[in-house]
Specification:
The complex is a heterodimer of chains A (229) and B (196). Chain A contains 6 helices and 9 strands. Chain A is an alpha+beta fold and 229 residues long. Chain A has an 8-stranded antiparallel barrel with strand order 1-4-2-9-6-8-7-5. In chain A, a hairpin with a 4-residue loop joins strand 7 and strand 8. Chain B has one domain: 2-Layer Sandwich (Alpha-Beta Plaits). In chain B, strand 2 and strand 3 form a beta hairpin. Chain B has an 8-stranded antiparallel β-barrel with strand order 1-3-2-8-5-7-6-4. Chain B has 196 residues and is α+β, with helices and mostly antiparallel strands. The chains are: A alpha+beta (229), B alpha+beta (196).
Chain lengths: 229, 196
């Protein structure tokens, strides 16, 4: 049975203001603006790159659990202001972004945690796929991704760092990362095609992780801890 | 100004690192901001930043977004794409007042950019498999997305908008063709003057 302590993700697609990608990523940072006891990991901050994706656009990925995420939301939407600098940060950020589209997501089978990712080589170059699937196909897709796509792309130097499913739609999101962009063509050739019966409608984005991202730090940053600047 | 460059015709399978790769851009401007002329200017200006522009098109708003422009940039091979990605966010694009922009990477399955063609039906298409897409008959140019090769871009060209209309009357476009699961298209053209 699912538990409120189960690993859980907030995926945020951020509509960044023109010319403000680097400002946004730096200001978003890794600071925590809520009750310290609720802290969870900001897995990473990413900006889309011009050849493939949207522009200007960013992506934030948070790794927590149901209990702490709901606690944070209760502070954000409750009767009292959180009182930990959230409003000030929000106002400061309003020149950097205009809005967004977010999803609450569960990890697919075998999808690693930030702690597991942080044991490996830092991989700031990321291919993101947003996969809209036929109703009922999402869980099969995620299981297939872990079993088939993961080993296939690892053979050519890329590593899937996340595959997850939206809890309120038949949507999967995958992130495949590398230390640099040198094997883009190899990745394309290595990726197995999904089952046509799943009717996968895919958007692909090339993203660069912000240098201060938690998942790139060695040792891994604790939740709410900022990188040295 | 809008330009058309002849393709070298070396596009091909996505597995070959020597194959050309194309970046398809959509730029959404605003009548209160960058108009079609300004969008065309900004696209052309990317040449100074090392981008190889293959074609620069204004969308025909009567059947799509407006003011809206399309651009196709060409990378000679995977190494050229890597070089551009490594530049990161500071790629020199003037983003001021753009409403949104969308880009796709694709390899060419067949066809060449015909320099006589100034007007195009431009389509995003999705099939059940890469093989089904490759078998799609009719478009002058057909591309497969680099990381989702069952999806692609189909382009149907004509010398003018009038000639494009005549092709439409005879029957072009991917809607309803064998194997097509999804097709969304609109007219585009190389404007002969700077447009507002």
């Amino acid at each position: 049975m699912a538990s409120e302590n189960d690993r859980f993700y907030l995926w945020e697609d951020i509509y960044i203001a023109p010319g403000r990608v680097t400002h946004y990523l730096g200001n978003m940072g890794n600071d925590w603006s809520f009750d310290p006891t609720l802290r969870y990991h900001l897995f990473g901050l990413f900006g889309h790159l011009r050849p493939m994706g949207h522009a200007p656009r960013g992506m934030n990925l948070w790794e927590g659990d149901w209990k702490r995420v709901t606690g944070m939301l209760t502070e954000q939407f409750g009767p009292k202001a959180p009182g930990h600098g959230f409003e000030a940060w929000w106002m400061r950020s309003n020149v950097d972004r205009a809005g967004g589209w977010d999803r609450l997501m569960l990890p697919g089978p075998g999808s690693p945690s930030i702690a597991e990712i942080a044991k490996g080589t830092p991989r700031p170059c990321v291919i993101q796929q947003i996969v809209r699937l036929r109703q009922g196909a999402r869980d099969d897709y995620l299981e297939w991704f872990g079993k088939k796509v993961r080993p296939a792309v690892e053979r050519v130097g890329w590593k899937p760092i996340k595959w997850m499913g939206a809890i309120h739609s038949s949507l999967a999101i995958t992130l495949i990362a590398a230390p640099d962009w040198s094997r883009m063509g190899d990745l394309a050739a290595a990726m197995p095609p999904p089952d046509p019966a799943w009717e996968a409608d895919v958007e692909t984005h090339a993203m660069q992780a912000w240098a201060g991202c938690s998942y790139l730090q060695r040792p891994l940053l604790e939740p709410g801890q900022s990188p040295k600047r | 100004m809008a330009t058309v460059k002849k393709s070298t015709g070396k596009g091909g399978a996505r597995s070959k690192s020597s194959a050309e790769i194309y970046s398809f851009w959509e730029l959404m401007g605003a009548t209160t901001g960058p108009t079609r002329g300004e969008l065309a200017h900004r696209i052309t200006a990317m040449g100074r930043n090392g981008w190889d522009l293959a074609i620069n098109l204004a969308s025909i708003g009567s059947d799509g977004h407006w003011p809206h422009s399309m651009a196709v940039f060409r990378f000679a091979n995977a190494a050229a794409l890597e070089k551009q990605l490594t530049v990161g966010f500071a790629d020199g694009m003037d983003e001021r007042d753009l409403k949104w922009a969308k880009m796709k990477l694709a390899t060419k399955l067949r066809g060449d950019l015909d320099t006589k063609h100034r007007s195009w039906l431009f389509e995003y298409v999705r099939f059940g498999s890469a093989e089904d897409l490759a078998a799609h008959q009719g478009p002058d140019l057909l591309f497969a997305e680099l990381y989702a090769p069952w999806q692609g871009i189909a382009m149907w060209g004509a010398d003018s908008l009038r000639a494009l209309m005549q092709r439409e009357l005879k029957g072009i476009g991917s809607v309803g063709k064998p194997g097509v699961l999804q097709a969304t298209g609109w007219w585009t053209t190389i404007p002969e003057r700077v447009l507002v």
